Every structure is written in structure tokens, then in C-alpha cells.
Amino acid sequence: MKHIILASLIVLSFLLGSCRRSTQQNDEAPDVNMSLAVEPKVPAVGPATLLITLTDADGNPINGAALEIRGDMSHAGMEPVLASAEAGQTGIYEVPFEWTMAGDWIVTVTATLPDGRTATREFDLTVSGEMNMDMEP
After folding, report:
1. How far is CA 47 from CA 71, 92, 98, in A?
2. Which of 11, 99, 106, 131 has the most CB atoms around it within 10 Å of its CB?
3. pLDDT of residue 65
4. Which residues contact 55 (CB under 8 A, 6 or more apart)?
5. Domains held by the chain: number
6. Does residue 29 lie within any of the structural domains?
7. What predicted TM-score, i.e. pTM, was given to this entire model?
8. Element spanning 72, H or E
9. CA 100 to CA 104: how far, in whole Å?
10. What is the phi/psi pair of residue 56, to 5°?
11. What parts of the chain have a pLDDT lower than 50?
12. 109 domain-assigned
């Protein structure tokens, strides 16, 4: 009986661990620095702007990348929020985004760089339950 329980726990932990894809496997550009800021500064349910900054290892801005953004709630069962951006000025990409629910979010940004490599990073955010009235719809 102990062996069945132990085997079940091992299989369950494997399945749960495989539900979230690893960004390390998809990252072809570990030398790229990526940061994420949100306007308004305290994320709240409703419209927002993601400010994603890309720089190379020397701190030089990276322009001309194509960004794919995926926002997932930290719990299962919610539809992801998807967005994209191209170009960027001085390495900063402004992306309109919509927080659909309060709670903990994982924002995954995949940047396809001008040289064809991809850089993928995850950012953890907590979104307030108060509606965001500071942004235009």
C-alpha cells in the first residue's frame, strides 16, 4: 500500500511539474536583459500598459524585436491574455494589456531578436481587485 501511495505521489509531482513550460529551454539569448514595468505602477483589473525593456549584455538598447506576451493566472482554469509588440524605441516596447481578474499572474515575454534568436523571461505580478480608472479603454 505504501508503494502505491509513493508511486502515485511521484506521478502526480511529475504531471504538475510538466504543466508549466520551462522558459530556460526556449531561451537562446541568455545575454539579453529584459525588464517589465506596468502602468499604472500598481496593476489593477482593467486596461494597463506593459513597458518591456530589452538591452544587450553591455546595456545597449535592442530595437526591432518582435514580442509575444502571455499573461496566465497562477491557478489553472483561466484563459490567458495575449498581446504582441514590434519595433520599440530606445529598447522600450509599450504593450496595451488587459488584466481580466485580480490575483497572482505570470507574464511570459518571448522576444524574437533582430538576429533571429529568442529570449524568454517570466515575471510574477499581483493584480489588485480594484478597477483601474486611470487608463483609457
Report:
1. 13, 19, 4
2. 99
3. 96
4. 32, 33, 61, 62, 91
5. 1
6. yes
7. 0.75
8. strand 65-73
9. 11
10. -85, -175
11. 1-24, 135-137
12. yes
Going by the DSSP 8-state scheme, the letter that residue 89 receives in this structure is B
pLDDT tens figures, 60-82: 999 999 999 999 998 888 899 99
Reading the block at residue 63, the C-alpha cell is 530595437
Position 14, amino acid: F
Contact indicator for 26, 120 with CB cutoff of 8 Å: yes
State yes or no: cis peptide before 80, omega within 30 of 0: no
CATH of the domain at 82: 2.60.40.1940
**By three-state DSSP, how is residue 11 classified?**
helix
- 80: cell is 490567458
Residues 6+ away with beta carbon under 8 Å from 28: 117, 118, 119
Range of the domain at 41: 23-131
Q: What is the pLDDT of residue 26?
A: 64
22: DSSP letter: P
* pLDDT at position 87: 80
Domain-embedded: residue 121: yes
For 2, 67, 73, 112, the CA distances from 21, given in Å and listed in that order, are 31, 18, 14, 18
For residue 26, the surrounding DSSP H or E stretch is helix 23-26
Q: CA dihedral defined by 99, 101, 103, 107, rounded to 10 degrees?
A: -40
**Which phi and psi angles does 16 have, rounded to 5°?**
-65, -40
